[in-house]
Amino acid sequence: MTKRRKLRSSIWKEFEPIYEGNLIVQAKCNHCLEIFSANRESGRSSCRRHVKTCKERIRMNQMVGNMTSLSPDARALQNWKFDQEVSRNAMVNFIVLQELPYSLVEHEPFQKFIATLNPLFTIVSRTTVAEDVIRSYEKRKLAIRKVIKNSDSRVSLTADLWTSSQNLGYLCITCHFVDNDWKLQKRIITFSLVASPHDGVTLFNSLLKSLQDWHLENRLFSITLDNAKNNKKMVDLLRINFSERLLLLGNEDLMHMRCGCHVLNLVLQDGFKFFDVETDHIRESVKYIRSSQARKQRFEEIVVQVGITSEKLPSFDSALEYRTAFAALHSQDPGYINVPSAHDWKMAKFLCDMFKPFYDATNVISGSLYPTANHYFHVLWTVKEKLEKEVSNKNQSVSVMVVKMKEKFQKYWDISLLQIYVPVVLDPRFKFSFMAFRLDAGFGDKGPTYTAKVKAAVKKLFSAYSSEAPVTFSGSQPRENDETLDEDDPWAD
Which residues contact 217 (CB under 8 A, 6 or more apart)? Predict the structure, then answer.
């Protein structure tokens, strides 16, 4: 059978060949889509004549010429060629990234806009867009699946329930893993509708289904969740299921990680409850100036008068910076009656200082582009020291508040002891000696007990990984078909 010859003629830059078997019989213009005879008998003279007179080609060349004159890099536009498939994929990505409805493509203004950019582009229906989205999703999913499969590391998951504007519950599961270049990666692997009730059994079934779909049951190391009862029930069921099938790695207590940011927020909420009265006037002052356009403008004028340099109106978090402006507003506006007292501002300043370690800790452990486990101990220890210091505060109200906050914080510390300390031991800058020193200094008689518990967990974890390690370490062979994750992937988190 005759093989298709390589197209050498420059005419094929302007035309698309149409074959019968392996022989060219016709040619379709890339610009106006008109079809011409191009077999051996008739030749391609009609195609060459058409290139010189094709109105769409002439118009497009004029457009490119105008763009070239404005472009700092004219060479980027000289070899451009319209491709319906490329443009269609770009449109689908645009719709997905901007969370637009598929019906956008059927809106007349949008169609006119596209026609002004390139009349050659054929708008597809919303049904076709939906099919393209599913096809693109499956393609991206396959690429991510290959990357996770090619990675030697175990994976950790984070999961959370998300409620839509229609009050429908969705479970979002994110997979965190280290790729073969030792870079931390994270990708959403599941975003699925969860049937009611959202109890532990339902969440467990959804999570297990996701793990099975991605073939991650034998690679799961830990899962991080909010501190809720249904989440605890879900993890208990998962632990039982994995234990029966011998899928747990090392100490099973390391499997469930409570979300540190969520716990810190719960501790803070206990603190704020005690100071609602002291901060009420500040809160009402912020509401007052934001309640009308006239008050906003008046307050902005006062801010300039007192010499405060800020382009934003105050929020409750930043109200302390506008203390002099609120005082000036009180002297000029008789309707402003909830002016904060000196005691209110003093208490606000104390709260800012009191809660600063919580703010810093939340910023550190909420990071998603770098490993955070080895930072938990250090930032949480700062919070612990702050609470212990303020327990003996001379202000009785403050002391009572801090005692309650400390109790809740200590409860989290005890539950998450291994997750907090094991990463410290694995950090070559600190190791066992630092961990033992801190535990003895911070917990007194309980220190040795905690130290023994952490040491046992590390040894058990080491044994588990040792049993999975290859027999020889003389060098690693390059993996076949290595994949890379596209940074512009619209399906990536």
Answer: 208, 211, 242, 245, 247
Closest by CA position to 414, among listed 453, 455, 374, 364: 453
Contacting residues for 142 by C-beta, under 8 A, at least 6 apart: none
Any alpha helices (H) in 306-446, and if so which ranges?
323-332, 342-365, 373-390, 396-415, 417-426, 431-443
- What does the alpha-carbon distance between residue 451 and residue 444 come to, in Å, rounded to a whole number? 11
* Cross-strand bridge partners of residue 394: none
Q: How many CA atoms lie within 13 A of 60 on its CB side?
A: 22
- What number of H helices and E strands is found in the chain? 18, 8
The answer to whether the CB of 288 falls within 8 A of the CB of 302 is no
Q: By the 8 A CB rule, do 405 and 271 touch?
A: yes
Instruction: Kindly give the confidence (pLDDT) of every residue in the chain, 493 residues in length, as a single tens digit, with 9 standing for 90 and above.
Output: 556 777 878 888 888 988 888 888 899 998 888 999 888 887 888 888 898 899 888 887 777 666 555 555 545 555 677 888 999 999 999 999 999 999 999 999 999 999 998 888 989 999 999 999 999 999 999 999 999 998 888 999 999 988 888 888 999 999 999 988 888 999 999 999 998 888 999 999 999 999 999 999 989 999 999 888 888 899 999 999 988 888 887 777 788 888 888 889 989 888 887 777 778 888 899 999 999 999 999 998 898 888 888 777 788 778 888 889 999 998 888 899 989 998 888 888 888 898 899 999 999 988 878 888 888 889 999 999 999 999 988 888 889 889 999 999 988 888 888 888 899 899 888 888 888 898 888 888 888 998 999 999 999 888 888 887 665 444 444 444 444 444 444 334 4
* b/e sequence 435-449, b meaning 16+ C-beta within 10 Å: bbebbeeeeeeebee
Q: Rounded distance, CA 329 to CA 445, Å?
A: 56
Joined tokens for residue 136: 């693109």
As a residue count, the chain comes to: 493
Residue 251, both tokens = 């100490």
The pTM (predicted TM-score) of the whole model is 0.70
Q: Which H or E element spans position 75?
A: helix 75-78
CA distances from 139 to 291, 483, 490 (A): 50, 13, 12
